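ok, trying the design again with the full structure, not the truncated one.
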């Protein structure tokens, strides 16, 4: 359970990265605003990265308060966060903009959240089998 909570630090890194310059000295919010004018779907994906990270933090708070959270919901949140960002990057940002520190903070957050979530999922399944 504690490793599941620690894994939510990755979502915190994503949120912090969103406020930092991500590309062209623009924060994630500024970049999303520009992208919505260019292509609304791509701009919405940028907001999905932020919103799913917020939901991930909320799930971590629930776990911290010993409220049981479905592991599938955690996976959905993590996959939404990472997939939205990767689609955004591969379709738009990689073609026109150079990444900055905020983007790397977001990437680090994804890696931390993903790795710790995999490890905690394995531990969670082993505990359920032993019951």
């Amino acid at each position: 359970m504690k490793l599941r909570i620690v894994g939510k630090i990755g979502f915190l890194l994503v949120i912090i990265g969103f406020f930092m310059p991500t590309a062209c000295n623009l924060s994630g919010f500024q970049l999303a605003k520009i992208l919505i004018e260019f292509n609304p779907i791509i701009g919405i994906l940028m907001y999905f990265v932020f919103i799913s990270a917020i939901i991930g933090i909320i799930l971590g708070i629930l776990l911290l308060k010993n409220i049981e959270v479905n592991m599938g919901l955690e996976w959905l949140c993590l996959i939404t966060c990472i997939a939205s960002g990767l689609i955004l990057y591969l379709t738009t940002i990689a073609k026109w903009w150079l990444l900055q520190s905020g983007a790397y903070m977001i990437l680090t957050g994804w890696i931390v959240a993903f790795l710790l979530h995999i490890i905690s999922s394995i531990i969670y399944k082993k505990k359920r089998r032993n019951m």
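Keeping the full-length input from now on. Helices lie at 2-6, 9-19, 28-38, 40-64, 71-96, 101-130.
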